[in-house]
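Assess this today:

___
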Amino acid sequence: MPHNNTYCAYCGLLSQRCACQEPGSDLALFMARGGRPAIPRQRAEPYKRGAPPQVKRRERQTLRANYERWRGQLARKYGERCANCGAAEALVLDHLIPIAKGGSSTLDNLQLLCAECNRIKGKLVIDCRVIHPE
């Protein structure tokens, strides 16, 4: 018999097991830092889980090799601020879809976040990028 499961679009867990909507969850903290409501979102399919070590290593090597160039491109396109809270210091590249969930180290899967927002976001899948007018 087919299952009609839905999955949280942020953490990837089955919707009935997800705690993203709970007060104090990583999602609630992250969204509050950015001044946005945590709106429930679901997916029909789970994220790919558990990238093999060789894939993780390759993706991290790609990120290290292109880090400064991609950071500059993202800063020019989206601004030299955290995409979530707007902080201008301690900016790092963050994977929208984490490597552990099948994401890749490509420019279209990256955003600039401050270290604090990056730490809170963890393995959540959240795209905060907004194009700033020139």
Remarks:
- The domain at 7-121 is CATH 1.10.30.50 (DNA Binding (I), subunit A).
- The CA atoms of residues 96 and 109 lie 5 Å apart.
- The chain has one domain: 7-121.
- The longest strand covers residues 91-95.
